[in-house]
Amino acid sequence: MSADQLAALETPAWLDTGNNAWQLTAASLVALQSVPGLCVLYAGLVKKKWAINSMFMVFYAFASVLICWVIWAYKIGFGQYMLPFAGRPGPVLTMDEVIVQSTLPSANVSQNFPKATMIYFQFVFAAITLALIAGAYLARMSFRAWMLFVPLWLTFSYCIGAYSLWGGGFLFQMGVMDYSGGYVIHLSSGTAGFVGAWWIGPRLKQDRENFQPNNILLAMVGAGILWIGWNGFNGGDPYAASPDAGVAVLHTNLCTAVSMLTWTCMDIIFYKKPSIIGAINGMITGLVGITPAAGFVAGWGAIIIGICTGIIPWISMNIAGKKWSLFTHHVDDALGITHTHMVAGTLGGFLTGLFATQTGSYAFGLTTDGGAIMGRGKQVWLQIVGALFIIGWNLVWTSLIMCFIKYVCRIPLRMTEEELLIGDDAIHGEEAYSFYDDVSGLVPSRTTEMRAADMLERIHHHGDKHETTVLHGQDLESGMPESVRGTENGGHLDDEIKQD
Fold first, then answer.
1. Is the pTM above the cut of 0.70?
2. Measured CA angle at 228 (ends 226, 229), to 5 deg
3. Rounded to an integer, what distance in angstroms lies between the CA atom of residue 196 and that of residue 136?
4. What's a single GO CC term here (predicted)?
5. What is the CATH number of the domain that holds 62?
6. Which of 200, 106, 205, 202 has its CA nearest to residue 144?
7. Residue 441: inside a domain, yes or no?
8. What's the half-sphere exposure (Cβ side, CA atoms, 13 Å) at 371?
9. What's the pLDDT at 447?
10. Of 467, 199, 494, 485, whose CA–CA distance to 323 is shortest?
11. Tell me: the pLDDT tens digits for 233-284?
12. Cα–Cα distances in angstroms (integers) from residue 101 to residues 11, 20, 25, 109, 122, in the given order
């Protein structure tokens, strides 16, 4: 190979090293949102007996998505045209393919960094989408079923939304605006969480009645990683270290702060106390709501979106989620992903159609003149069409995937009764917290298995599968005194631990 050829490989004419550096940094920030961000957020918000299982669901999804992504999925989302909503599948595993300039052939755009950078950047978005879905299925979904669900949903749902809105598909051609995944990621994960929770069924009655977080400090660590990691989430989507990337980062943080404070005010007004778990919810809904709009709207638009995402999802979670029979009896969304992602994602996409500016649209590289405030009321209807497609597609395909796993593959969607009673130790043979060792001479305490066996015996004796039995004044699952049990609220990631 000649010196000129070597130089062309090392520093090709199309390469902008600054843009490449920022894109890789943004991708790494997004990766941190899943591992360890959502891992520790979920582990802190669930009961102690589910901490390992919740982390492992995210950990598995992150690794599994990457393997599928490079073998076939990336090209479905960002490759050559095959269908109006899907590219042609195929691998991206050869050096000659990944070292060349990145292009999105169906969208007819290119970037001044290598294709390998684009593949990794889009992978971390796909991975966190599956990790978000896990939040709705915690504390009862079979891990084997989850192992099969991840590649199937990635292929038949996520990639379809990605191609349709970002990769050059029909919604992209229509002009639907989604800056960084309000529809592709959050609306799709929220819808899949809602539908899948119905198919899997609810948690144990005692888990729904008492789902008090086991480690709020750990949850706050995860929440902080999630917030700061969002700088890469939204700041990386102009595919350049551009002025609009800076705008997106600023407005992301502005909207999130407003949403968090608004949610806290709602807690104070209705519950008379500010809740840190409520503040985490408000943070998440703000991040989700600004995602489709980040670089399109002005600062005042980001503030309005933050106020809306601090109020409407709060109402959805704390009123509809606790009073509607749909949520109290049929759809057990463990961490309220329906409210924080489906509701907030739809809201953010709709408000993008209202408040997108001409300057922001042009800075992002679009040729549209913004939204309704610029005299383009049509954009609002386009945003509604985009939301309806993502919701409808996920209603159908999440259901089909669940049925395929359950009826064709014959893999139960739920854990066994014993696993549901015991938790991590039965499923993974591990416990999250081990603050003691066996000491010679000490009388051993009752094990989780022994307490669960007593419960099973009493259940079978009385013929009530949902009986909550208390031995020696303690909750059988958590060892928590009966006096500090939570109240029945569906177990959502909400203001469940507040006492008036």
1. yes
2. 60
3. 8
4. plasma membrane
5. 1.10.3430.10
6. 200
7. no
8. 26
9. 60
10. 494
11. 999 999 999 999 999 999 999 999 999 999 999 999 999 999 999 999 999 9
12. 11, 11, 18, 11, 15
Q: Which two tokens stand for residue 291?
A: 């995602």
Q: What angle do CA 423, 425, 429 make, to 5 degrees?
A: 140
How many whole angstroms separate alpha carbon 274 and alpha carbon 263?
A: 9
For the record, the structure tokens of 158 come out as 């996520």
Within a domain: 414: no
Closest Cα partner for 151 from 65, 257, 240? 65
Q: Name the pLDDT band for 312 (thresholds 50, 70, 90).
A: very high
The answer to whether 29 and 232 have CB atoms below 8 angstroms apart is: yes
With tokens 């891990």, the residue in question is 143
Residue 93 domain boundaries:
16-408
Q: How far apart are the first and last CA of the chain?
A: 75
Q: Are strands 86-87 and 101-104 parallel, antiparallel or unpaired?
A: unpaired
Q: What is the pLDDT of residue 367?
A: 86
Q: How far is CA 320 from CA 121, 137, 328, 352, in A?
A: 36, 19, 9, 25
Rounded distance between C-alpha atoms, residue 73 and residue 228, angstroms: 28
Q: What is the pLDDT of residues 410-424, one digit of tens each?
A: 999 999 999 999 999
Instruction: Show Cβ contacts of residue 61 under 8 Å, excluding neighbours closer than 6 positions.
Output: 34, 127, 130, 131, 134, 146, 150
Where on the phi/psi map is residue 472: left (φ > 0), alpha (ψ -120 to 50), or beta?
Answer: left
* Cα separation, 180 vs 188, whole angstroms: 13
User: In total, how many domains does the chain have?
Assistant: 1
Contact call for residues 308 and 289 (beta carbons, < 8 A): yes
Q: Please give the full DSSP string across 356-410, using - where no structure is assigned.
A: --HHHHHHHT--S--SGGGT-THHHHHHHHHHHHHHHHHHHHHHHHHHIIIIIS-
Dig out the tokens for 361 from the structure.
């649209």
CA distance 174 to 489: 42
Q: Which residues contact 280 (CB under 8 A, 6 or more apart)?
A: 41, 219, 220, 223, 493
At position 149, the amino acid (one-letter code) is F
Question: Does residue 33 form part of some domain?
Answer: yes
The CA R_g of the chain, rounded to the nearest whole Å, is 23
Who's near 449: CB < 8 A, 6+ residues apart? 422, 425, 426
Q: Interhelix angle for 216-235 vs 243-271, to 10°?
A: 150
